[in-house]
Recover the amino acids of this structure.
């Protein structure tokens, strides 16, 4: 299965991609995770990407296209992959098509998670992540047992720099302007299925599986 998860920041792409990875045994490729790791390592790419990410803007196309083109050649992508957070612009989608055709592969499905923007701002602004084990929490919907510390390992809970409310609103606007056109792009190719992303995590997962079976 070669799948793209499309949807604004906070729509649940990362959560659903992790579950798809478990059920289908294919890797999740998150350009956001790869870029955050590069920022942590202070690699030249990370240093360049950080200013765009902190402002809630997009990292230049050539950088993310290079990341994905390289990652798709790894052996673990032979049976498929889940792209989470890529493509985010039409040039990225065009480049992906080119890379896939060079690898003799094609996409099976593009799942678009449909959500309400105001609800997303609340979801994102409440997100916290454990700095030790990476477990995610939400201050309102999935709070830790003890304020500020991870219920699994006791690590410190941190907020992503780009989950501040002003940055979130900028990320939403960027999504509307640059990424939303991809819905039509993939609809015209007959690959797009819209799934209601506002329900419980399990219900969204079931809807995605149904969509994948039909694709
Ligand atoms: P995410 O975790 O997917 O929300 O990504 C976090 C940030 O990384 C985004 O706000 C962008 O600054 C950057 N980023 C991730 N994926 C891409 C992409 N495909 N194109 C450009 N920038 C990206």
């Amino acid at each position: 299965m070669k799948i793209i998860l499309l949807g604004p920041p906070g729509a649940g792409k990362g959560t659903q991609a992790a579950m798809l990875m478990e059920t289908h045994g294919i890797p999740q490729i998150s350009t956001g995770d790869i870029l955050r790791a590069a920022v942590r390592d202070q690699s030249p790419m990370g240093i360049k990407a950080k200013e765009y990410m902190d402002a809630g803007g997009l990292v230049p196309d050539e950088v993310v296209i290079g990341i994905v083109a390289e990652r798709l050649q790894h052996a673990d992508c032979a049976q498929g992959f889940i792209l989470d957070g890529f493509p985010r612009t039409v040039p990225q989608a065009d480049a992906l098509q080119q890379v896939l055709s060079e690898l003799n592969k094609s996409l099976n499905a593009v799942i678009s998670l449909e959500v309400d923007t105001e609800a997303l701002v609340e979801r994102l602004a409440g997100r916290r992540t454990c700095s030790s084990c990476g477990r995610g929490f939400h201050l309102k919907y999935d709070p830790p047992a003890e304020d500020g510390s991870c219920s699994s390992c006791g690590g410190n809970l941190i907020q992503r720099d780009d989950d501040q409310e002003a940055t979130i609103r900028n990320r939403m606007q960027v999504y509307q302007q640059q990424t939303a056109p991809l819905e039509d792009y993939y609809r015209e190719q007959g690959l797009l299925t819209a799934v209601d992303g506002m329900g419980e995590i399990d219900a969204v997962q079931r809807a995605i599986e149904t969509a994948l079976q039909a694709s």
Observations:
- The mean pLDDT is 94.
